[in-house]
Amino acid sequence: MWEDDDDDDDDGYDPEEEQRKLESLPIYKKSLEILDLTEQIVDTFNDEGRAKYHRDLMLQDAMIIPAKIAGAEAMDDYILKMENATVIKIHARSLLAQTSSAKYLDLQDERYLKLLRDEIESFRVLFLEWIKTFENGTTKEGDGWGLFVKE
Known about the structure:
Order of helices and strands: HHHHH
Strand content: under 5%
C-alpha cells in the first residue's frame, strides 16, 4: 500500500522497545508523577468560575509535559528536541505559577500545593540533566528562526 513499507524491519525500529526506553527515563517518570499529583489536587477544586479555569489550565500544563518529553525522545534533531524542551519549561513554569494562584484563591490546602511545587523542582533538576544529553550538531537544517542554531 505504501511505497516505503517494503522493508520496515531494515531500520531496526521497534515501537515497544522505544516505549520501554521512554518509560524508563527518570524525567518521564517524574512527569507522570506530576500529572498524577496534579489530577489529584484539581479533583478537589469546585467546578465553577476561577476554580474551573485553574483546574483546566493546571491539567493542560501537566498533560503537555510528558507528551513533549515523548516527542523529544522520538527524534534525533537537536533543534526539534530543544523546541520540545522549551515548551516543557514553559508549561512546568506555568504549572508552578498556578500553584501560587490556587494558594491565593484558597482552592486547595497549601501543603498539597507545596508538594506539587517540590515535585516540579525535582523535575527541573532532572530536566537540566536531560537536556545535556541532546547532541548539538544533529540538525539537518536550521529552524528558519535562528533560535538554537545560528543560520
